[in-house]
Structures are given as structure tokens and as C-alpha cells.
Amino acid sequence: MRLRSLLFAPGNRAEVLAKLPRSEPDGVVLDLEDAVPAEAKADARAVVAAAAAELREGHPGLAVHVRVNAVPSEWFADDVAVALVPGIAGVVVPKLESAEQVATVVEALDARGLGDLTIAAGLETAAGVARAEAVLDDERVVAAYFGAEDYIADLGGVRTAAGAEVLYARSRVALAARLTGTVAVDQVVTDLSDEDRFRADATVGRSLGYRGKLCIHPAQVAWAHEAFTPSDEELDRARRLLEAYDTAVTAGSAAIAFEGQMVDEPLARQARTLLDSADE
Amino acid sequence: MRLRSLLFAPGNRAEVLAKLPRSEPDGVVLDLEDAVPAEAKADARAVVAAAAAELREGHPGLAVHVRVNAVPSEWFADDVAVALVPGIAGVVVPKLESAEQVATVVEALDARGLGDLTIAAGLETAAGVARAEAVLDDERVVAAYFGAEDYIADLGGVRTAAGAEVLYARSRVALAARLTGTVAVDQVVTDLSDEDRFRADATVGRSLGYRGKLCIHPAQVAWAHEAFTPSDEELDRARRLLEAYDTAVTAGSAAIAFEGQMVDEPLARQARTLLDSADE
Amino acid sequence: MRLRSLLFAPGNRAEVLAKLPRSEPDGVVLDLEDAVPAEAKADARAVVAAAAAELREGHPGLAVHVRVNAVPSEWFADDVAVALVPGIAGVVVPKLESAEQVATVVEALDARGLGDLTIAAGLETAAGVARAEAVLDDERVVAAYFGAEDYIADLGGVRTAAGAEVLYARSRVALAARLTGTVAVDQVVTDLSDEDRFRADATVGRSLGYRGKLCIHPAQVAWAHEAFTPSDEELDRARRLLEAYDTAVTAGSAAIAFEGQMVDEPLARQARTLLDSADE
Fold it and tell me: Deepest of B36, B198, B231, C242, by most Cβ within 10 A of its Cβ?
């Protein structure tokens, strides 16, 4: 699953939801959680259901998701009952904290005949990060995002541009995603117009093993795609590296000097992964 | 519990202990562990007991603590028996490494009729950091500190000003503290006169979720209070942010652009936490 | 065990293996894994066995290791059966991921009468890092290395010079090594001629608690020895610090100001560890 970008929009804003495909994101999220005030949640469910159905029809290649409210919240049951429609890609569940909560989601989906929907897990609380591997272990959970703002709010810390305060949690979530075969999607950048910061943050996310970014503005989608797509220079170097490596292997040697670097299987594997990701 | 500063002084120095309140720290620690030589520990216990009683009487608002020696040490039992007095805030126990050791502390306190004393846990060894959540899980443990110097001594590493070598452990302890509802107090800065380094280190600690700093010199107390108290600028921005957010929520929207940043519930929560911490 | 450097060479290159001692590394690794192409593995085993026996005879002080292929691979059993010889220091096992795999290694060694060989565990996959403590817990495992290139290949991330993408895993492996009494050896630097980068990377490794570095070029050995040997300046400062500390302790004080820094037991312990490491 390719999720270089996952663009969010408020579930109570029909006109914004309809425009989501314009920036050509890999996935979209019709949000019933943080972006919708408590008083507007009930009405938003029908708006989301209608918009999701329309996006599913009109944009077959688009991974349409709905973010429901957290499992323990008063809204979760009705969100699942009203806002989800068959045939969309999946449901995004925020602030997941245990395998039990995931089981509750799976039951709720199955009871509604939505057994084909995948789950994207939000790991964005102290408990969610600490139990990440258990949360992601269910086969229905195919993607996960790390929510830096919520995580730091939960810890009572402070977000910084450099992000050292989330390096531990962000790394741990990426590792848990890999252990469970889950696609990891990286934290939001809340600065709406700071392109440099977004790109820098995405580069770090990619280095950690993330496959894409949560986007909260259409302009971020193109930046995310660029950051999570290997550059021509990278692809070119990977091809040259593999050619040199494969030639050497055929000649009986699997450790070579390539442009000043020692190359053996791990670096060849990194190069193959890079080329594969470009072919997706 | 407000613990922006926890000022240590050697338990065998009566005159220094008496002066502890002068810099107006949130908490003080009369130390029987690292600051007292083995030969002086026996005598120091009575000095500490007397000083603790006096500080308790003379400074009702001050959180008076005594740091005993580690549970497995030859001194622990007598430290509890002689140096602790009723009515102080709590006991600081260094180098805790397991829930069993915490149970030993609780038993020892209860046997002495000191059931009202809270425990502040020192996490400062490889095992202490690795078992942090288990150590902090006991309800009597209300605070925890991360001891960077001891941790790195235990690992055989090297301390640096930037502190990348402790970022993992420091982050992990802050997370464990949050998971267990414990107040996290950040590492010592051993450079006595380097104000810039102290402030920079405190800023990182606060970003990670710590609530205060261990202080080993009276001058550090004021720096710690500044670092762990929201600035007027921060408070002002938080108030403006919440006003804009609340206005938008009333109008039916919970995701707004505020001064170039996308603001929704997580950032509103960070702002509320900030304002709450200023009211404490 | 002193392992400031562990120099690797391809197991199918007899002439390179013979020259391994020239740069005077603490340990050498005759590699059957990444450096040897699949087609050459069978032949390489005999080459390695002969070279290992010769190195053992000719260089009694040298810690001679053979790296076999990973336990689940088709090559592991024959590697143990053919390439290992009695009397060498140990076997390096790459990509270990569980205590079960370690038990398989121990059984295979014992079945071959190689019960005196120690195990050096490669932790270089998502699972290996996540289960590091369990892998290292067997008493036969006396050393561990963190393989950054393989780890990041496994996560699908990107390696950078600064290395923030591996700080979590690298820190976690160092901690697991300390918890299990294992000597930790730090990641490879693949840039063959970049001395500055090697030294900088080794300095970070040492700060985290690593005792030495994997080397993939003879020139790196001297750099590693320098990085993992305390400098005269460090030793001098440690001696002065301990002298001042011990004098103060004798006089009844165990917390002193030393050259602008507060020194008590943790810093004294760091100084003692430093002096001990120089005496090895």
C-alpha cells in the first residue's frame, strides 16, 4: 500500500471534503475526531458518509478513509454505525492504546458488515506508543501513524522544530510498524506554509522508515510525494551501485569499494528497496 | 505536586542543610547517599533527622526529602530507621531497579510508622531505566528522577554537553513517568557556573515532559524555576490560541489556521496544559 | 575482553585473510556471510577453516572469529560443520532475533565439540533490536554488535551521516548489552577513507557505552583504537579528579567542586572506569 500522503479534512465541511482529491494525495481522511467540535459530531457523520460514498465512486484509485473518534469516547459507536460506508479503503482510529481496543474496533466493523475495511492505527498517547507493537499486531491493522502533537500534549512536553523530544517515540513506532508489517505514516507538520520545515521533517521521517506523512493542507501533498519518492539522483546511484555489486558477485566477490564506500549485501539491499519503492 | 527544583545538600553538613531554603526551591533533599562518605554515613543520619525536623517546622510549604542509600546497600535499613522523621514530604531512593525493591522500601517505611511519606524513585542504572515502568508503578512512588551521570557511569559511556548519549534513557523515563502518573524530574547539570548549559539542558528536559530539575547548587534553583515556568510570551500565545480556537469551535469549526499554524484539539490541549501549569 | 576493533575480511579471499593481523586489530572476523557470494560459500568454508587455524597458531593474542551465515539460512549448518575450528575465540552470528536461535547456535557448536567458542551476536534487524535483551541473555553470548546498515535496510529507512535514524536502536542495543554483561561493538562506517566521519561516529559510539567498532578496512583499526582508548588528557583529568575526590572523602566530604564541576560518586565512578579501561 502506497501512502506517501494522507490528507485530512474536517468531516463537517462537505465542500472541503469534495475538494480533497484535487491535490492528488495517495489517501484521504474524512475526520470526525479532532477537526469536528463535539456539538457538530452527530451531523458530521451523515456528511462524511455521503462524501465518502461520492469519493469512492468518483475516484477509484484514491484510498478513502474515515477517522472515527477514539474507542473509549461517547462518539465511537455511532461513528461506526453511521459514518462508515462499504467499499472505502479503511477506518482511521485515533489514540489506540491496547490490543483490546483494536478487538473492539474489529467487532464493531464486522457487526456492521464492514469486514473489508482496513484499520489505520493512531499511536499518539503515552500508552499507545508504549504498547505500539501489541496494538499493531492485529492483521486488520495495515497502517499506523505517529501523532507527535498529541503525544507531547499527553506527556506535557513541548514541541520543537528539531523534534528531539519525539525521536524516541517516533523511532519506536517505526520499529513496531516494521515488526508487524504495518505501513508507518509520519507526524503532522502544523506550520501551514513552512515548506522547508515540512521537507526537513519528512526527510527525517523517511530516514526512520516511515512511508509517508499525514498532511493537513493540500500544499503539503506534493511536498510529501517528493520527500517519499526516491530522487533521480538516488535512483541513478542505486542502479550504478547494484550493477557494480552484481558484476562483482558474478566474479566471486560480494564486498566491493564503490565510489569510496564499502558495499556489500546490506547496502545492496538498501538500493534494491529504493528501486522497488520507485516502481510501486 | 510542583517540583520545578529539587535542591540537594550533603547530609553530613548541618550548616548547609539549614541554608537550603534560602534559594526558595520547591523541594529539598538531605542526601545520605553520594554526597556522604561511607565513614560519615552513621553520624550523618542524626544530622539529617534533626535538620529535616527543623526544616519541616520552619518551612511548612517546602517539600522536605531525605535521600537514603540504595536498597541493597549496607546502609539502607539504618537510614530508614534513624534519618527519616514523620511529617516530611518523602524519601528519595536512589538506583531503584525493580518493583521488589520498591516493596522493600514501602515495608520499611510502614514498619517505622512512616506510611505518609511518599517515594521519589531514582532511575539511574541500566536496570533502573529498563524496568522504569515497573519501578514507578507502585502508588507510593509519586516522583522519579533520571540520573544521567550514574546511568552513563553504569554503561561505561561518556557524558557530553549535547547529551545524545542519554536521549533514549531520558525519553524512556519520561514516558514511564507519564504511564504511571509520576512527576518526572530531570538530570543534574554538574557544571556549577554554566548558566547557559543549565538553561539549555532544562529546556530539553521540559520538552521531553519533565517537570523540574535536580539542582546541586542554590544558583540553579532560579534557573530551573524559569525554565519550568511558562514565559509571559508563551502564556500570551496560549491564551490567544485558545480564544481563537474556542471561538471557532462555537462557530462549528475545530480546525483553524492560527498565526500560520494549523490548530486543532492537540494544540489546544498543549495550550491548556501550559496555562494549567502556570496556575499551580 | 578488549574489542576496540573487530576487523572483517571476505572468507573467500585467502590472501586478504592472511594479512588481517597487519593492522594489529584486537579481533578479526573471517566472514562467510555478507562478503561472500552465494555461489562461493561452499568453497569459502575450507578457506576460512584453514585461515582461522593459521591465524590461531601464528597470532596467539589475536581474537580470531568466524562469521557464519544467519541461523535460518541454508548455509548455517554447513558453516558450523566445516568452517569453525577449535581454539579460536568465537563465532559471530549475524541477524540473531530470538533466544531460540541462540539455543540453536549453542547446540550446533556443542554437537561439533566447539563448546569453548564464544558467541558474538549480530543485532541488525527490527526483531533483533526489539529482542536484544533476550538474545544476549545466554551466557555463551559474550559480545554483540549493532549493524546499522542492515537495520535501516530492514526498516526501509535511509542512513545519514548524523545518524539520528539509528540513535534509538543503537542506544537500545548498548543498554541490552549492559544488562546482560555483554561487550557492545559499534556499527560500521562504510565510507572507506573518511577518517573524520569514522572518528566522529566512534566518539558517539563510545559515549553510548560501546567498547569498540566493527572495521571493514585496515586503516580504520588505528582510528578505532584511538577513539576507544582514553586520551592522555582524559586520563590526566581523571587522576586529578580522583585525587581531589579521595582527599575530600578522607576529610569527610564526598561532594566537591572540581574545576568548576560538582563531583561526587557518579563522576568518580566514571573516572575510575576510564582509568580501568586504560589498564586493560
Answer: B36
